[in-house]
TrEMBL record:
Stretches that traverse the bilayer: none
Single GO molecular function: 8-oxo-GDP phosphatase activity
Family, similarity comment: Belongs to the Nudix hydrolase family.
EC number: 3.6.1.58
Residue ranges with Basic and acidic residues bias: 7-26
Name the record gives this protein: 8-oxo-dGDP phosphatase NUDT18
Cofactor requirements of the protein: Mn(2+); Mg(2+)
Catalytic reactions of this protein: 8-oxo-dGDP + H2O = 8-oxo-dGMP + phosphate + H(+); 2-oxo-dADP + H2O = 2-oxo-dAMP + phosphate + H(+); 8-oxo-dADP + H2O = 8-oxo-dAMP + phosphate + H(+); 8-oxo-GDP + H2O = 8-oxo-GMP + phosphate + H(+)
Record PANTHER family: 8-OXO-DGDP PHOSPHATASE NUDT18, MUTT/NUDIX HYDROLASE
One Pfam family named in its UniProt record: NUDIX
Length: 352
């Protein structure tokens, strides 16, 4: 968001959020809620501890496909690799230099299972810090034919539909929850279709819609004031989970409140990746919904949950860089409350 001339005259410390700035922020949040991306123009926190992402050097991205047929059998491939020879796994592999995530998915399914496919939605993202991120897609077959042993090669020995019950030597049992996740989504899509947005990013970052809600369903969003009020973007650091970036923001904004609040990354509104220029656009931006929750629930004598913060308001920011913005736009408030309560959003799981 380009700062207006008028903004440059205002000192950060006494800048509240003008109506025009509120409108711009609320519009940006609505764009993110609808799965659209938002150009990453800078990084507010953690950049000094983060290196630009370079595929196969300091970041490894893996794509994995969950594909069902009409009998709800799942597509499996028999590995040709020495360390898991003849064991079965979902079609999966490492993203190659210059590839988008969807191109990598199509290539891996073609190489390992023989089929052409189209991604339907991201199902789940798993991470072990910025250096290892796995993108699990629900996908559907659009052509080609299943790979038979006659076509065995170094990519895989063959592919087959698995009824998910018969005994099968698996390369890793970690895929069972991925298959289950796919089946649940197929039967009852509990988050919007979410596919990567082609917007470039140099680092692995999180742009946060960090919210505080109270029993009256008021909702506040944490903003960085300068140059104009905007959602915080924080870089992931290699020693921590990607989601730790949200903790760094809360630690910086309200250090004393940090220790009695939970910083809970509920999920991903949208994901931005380009990948075309090696070492320049290999980063990923996760636009996330993060809830700030006091880590203690107080109950009255009837056992009912009582307002957790005496004021029902968010903990005060102590760092003048930050300001809480109370969401006033009714539709946006309802959408954010619905997502915060039902977590109807793409999950981001840290395996750290
Ligand atoms: C993390 C994995 O999902 C790896 C999947 O990637 P591959 O090892 O199959 O890589 P390619 O050779 O590119 O196909 C499973 C694991 O390492 O536990
Ligand atoms: Mg593989």
């Amino acid at each position: 968001m380009k700062p207006q001339v008028s903004d440059l005259r205002r000192k950060p410390s006494d800048m509240e959020v003008t109506e025009e700035e509120r409108r711009q922020v609320e519009e940006q949040v609505e764009r993110l809620l609808s799965g659209q991306g938002s150009e990453v123009t800078g990084c507010d926190v953690g950049l000094e501890q983060s290196k630009p992402a370079t595929l196969r050097k300091n970041v490894t991205y893996i794509v994995c496909a969950v594909i069902f047929n009409d009998q709800e059998e799942v597509l499996m491939v028999q590995e040709a690799k020495q360390d898991c020879y003849k064991q079965w796994y979902l079609p999966a592999g490492r993203v190659e230099v210059g590839e988008s995530l969807e191109e990598a998915l199509r290539r891996e399914v073609k190489e390992e299972a023989g089929f052409d496919c189209e991604p339907i939605t991201l199902l789940l993202i798993q991470e072990q810090g910025p250096q290892w991120i796995r993108f699990i897609f629900l996908a559907k077959v659009t052509g080609g034919s299943i790979k038979t042993v006659a076509a065995a090669d170094q990519e895989s020995l063959q592919a087959s539909w698995w009824d998910r019950h018969s005994v099968l030597p698996l390369r890793g049992r970690d895929i069972l929850r991925l298959i289950d996740c796919g089946l649940r989504y197929r039967r009852d899509p509990w988050h919007p279709v979410t596919l990567p947005v082609d917007l470039s990013c140099r680092h692995v970052v999180q742009t946060l819609v960090l919210v505080f809600t109270n029993a009256e369903d008021q909702i506040w969003i944490l903003l960085i004031k300068a140059p104009t009020p905007h959602l915080p973007t924080a870089a992931a650091v290699k020693t921590h989970a990607v989601t730790w970036a949200a903790n760094m923001v809360v630690q910086e904004a309200m250090p004393s409140a940090y220790y009695d609040h939970d910083v809970n990354t509920l999920g991903v509104f949208s994901l931005q990746h380009n990948g075309r220029q090696h070492g320049k656009t290999d980063g990923v931006c996760f636009n996330t919904l993060v809830a700030l929750l006091p880590d203690r629930v107080t109950r009255n004598e009837d056992g009912e949950k009582v307002e957790w913060t005496k004021t029902g308001r968010p903990p005060p920011v102590e760092n003048p860089r930050y300001v809480w913005l109370e969401v006033q736009k009714q539709t946006l408030r309802e959408k954010l409350l619905e997502k915060t309560k039902n977590t109807s959003i793409l999950p981001l799981h840290s395996l750290y």
